[in-house]
Design brief:
The chain folds into two domains: about 130 residues, D-Ala-D-Ala carboxypeptidase, C-terminal domain (Peptidoglycan synthesis regulatory factor (PBP3), Domain 2), CATH 2.60.410; about 220 residues, DD-peptidase/beta-lactamase superfamily (Beta-lactamase, 3-Layer(aba) Sandwich), CATH 3.40.710.10. It is built from eleven helices and 18 strands. Strand 2 and strand 3 form a beta hairpin. The longest helix has 18 residues. The chain is globular, with a radius of gyration of 24 Å. Its EC number is 3.4.16.4.
């Protein structure tokens, strides 16, 4: 027993100098916020945010329920990206071909790859394609809608409720400008999503029948606004004109959402007006480089005993010109240790970004190397050390 006690204390003291993987708070310089001018928008609700942090630059009735129309398809697209493979085969059913409104001109018995169907849906806002995707993933449209609502809640879009995957009007199908911006910002983090929504036109291929059709994007800003790179249009008589528009200029990426404009053209001019305002008044201040926040973490039962984790990207903060009192801070969240196996690029934690103590963004922390399952004496010592420190922490 005396020998075991000496061994335990030796392990503790030999490892006590290791960097802790617990969360830390890092406060930044203080800045103050300036209020943007009012706009003569016909949109009943609107919002402008900086994409990487979600900071709100302008808003008008941003929490009022509105019909989102085909902006709904942002959620359909991002779920399909997360839950399917590009070459998955989709068989088109009667349910999809009988949907009203904008169409990819699908016919019963058509067969397509998922990536072609998804691209076609986002280009021409095909309601039929959205239903086909929903059925392929959920088995039924209603089951897929349940997934949509769960995802919306997880993203903080708490004033959103979907009843279909395409945005056709229904009293129980609603969202807000703020929630649409949250969904758009989340989707925009996905590189494949960005490629889809930035395409002006694309040739879409069918497997059965063997045919090709070229479709143009319904988002006119891609042609008329040099900084535009997405995202999704929407229009019905009940919803009016809707648009989630993204653009990048001088290292600043903004997302503008307008809902229920007076007509289908106003959505483009009003979104552009908001984006222009943002680019004139917002600048990004460098916060941290990825290497500044690199930390090491123990791996239990692994061939490699310790790996480094780093943010996926450098961290910057949007500042409105003239402000001198806004508080940004970050919190690095990591578990005490990892269990093997760990793969390079695995998300193992996050850097949470706060603005005035409210979380506005998150950058994943990822593993910089792999560690397969296996025996390693150093890993065993780390496991013993972590078990002992956990006991003391809970005592």
């Amino acid at each position: 027993m005396r020998f075991l006690r000496y061994l335990i204390f030796a392990v503790i003291f030999s490892l006590s100098s290791l960097t802790s993987a617990s969360a830390q708070d890092i406060s930044l310089q203080q800045f103050s916020s300036g209020a943007p001018p009012e706009y003569g928008l016909t949109a009943k609700s609107a919002i402008l945010i900086e994409a990487s942090t979600g900071r709100v630059i302008f808003e008008k009735n941003a929490d009022v329920h509105e019909y989102p129309a085909s902006m709904t398809k942002m959620m359909t697209a991002v779920l399909s990206l997360e839950m399917t493979n590009p070459n998955d085969i989709v068989h088109i059913s009667d349910e999809a071909t009988n949907v009203d409104g904008s169409s990819l001109y699908l016919e019963k018995g058509d067969i397509m790859h998922m990536d072609e169907l998804r691209q076609g849906m986002m280009l021409v806002s095909g309601n039929d394609a959205a239903v086909a995707i929903a059925d392929a993933i959920g088995g039924t449209t209603s089951a897929f809608v349940d997934l949509m609502n769960k995802k919306a809640q997880s993203l903080g879009a708490v004033n959103t409720h979907f009843v279909n995957p395409n945005g056709l009007p229904d009293p129980n199908h609603y969202s807000t400008a703020r929630d649409m911006a949250k969904i758009a910002a989340y989707a925009y983090e996905n590189e494949d999503f960005r490629k889809i929504v930035s395409a002006k036109e694309k040739e879409i291929h069918w497997l059965t029948p063997d045919k090709k059709m070229v479709f143009e994007n319904t988002n006119h800003l891609l042609w008329n606004y040099p900084y535009a790179n997405g995202i999704k249009t929407g229009y019905t008589d009940d919803a009016g004109g809707c648009l989630a528009a993204s653009a990048t200029r001088n290292g600043v990426t903004l997302i503008a959402v307008v809902m229920h404009t007076e007509d289908g053209q106003n959505r483009f001019s009003e979104a552009q007006e908001l984006l222009d305002y943002g680019f004139k008044n917002v600048r990004m201040q460098p916060g941290y480089k990825k290497t500044d926040l690199m930390q090491s973490i123990h791996v239990h039962n692994g061939k490699t005993a310790k790996i480094n984790v780093v943010p996926q990207s450098d961290i910057s903060y949007p500042l409105i010109d003239g402000e001198s009192g806004t508080s940004y801070s970050i919190k690095v969240n990591l578990p005490q240790y990892l269990e093997a196996p760990v793969k390079t690029g695995d998300k193992v934690g996050s850097v949470d970004i706060f603005y005035n103590n409210n979380k506005v963004g998150e950058v994943p922390m990822t593993a910089d190397r792999s560690s397969g399952t296996g025996f390693n004496l150093e890993s065993l010592c780390y496991a013993l050390y972590d078990s002992i420190t956990s006991l003391f922490a809970t005592a």
